[in-house]
Amino acid sequence: MLGKPKARIMMPVNADPSEMEKIALADPNVRKAIEGKTIVKVIAVPKRIVNIVVK
What we know:
- 31% of the residues lie in helices and 24% in strands.
- By secondary structure, it is of the alpha+beta class.
- The longest helix is centred in the middle third of the chain and has 10 residues.
- It has 2 helices and 2 strands.
- Strand 1 and strand 2 form a beta hairpin.
- The protein has a two-stranded antiparallel sheet with strand order 1-2.
- It has a domain of 38 residues.
């Protein structure tokens, strides 16, 4: 979101991409950053990162 990290979240090591997406979208900092925007795509790389593309 705007090319800047919005949160660092501890996740289970064995979390699958859909679970990672749910955890990331539940974070208050992320929710605040995407408020009023449309989610275009969510890219989740297991054991690494979750990118949320908004418009």
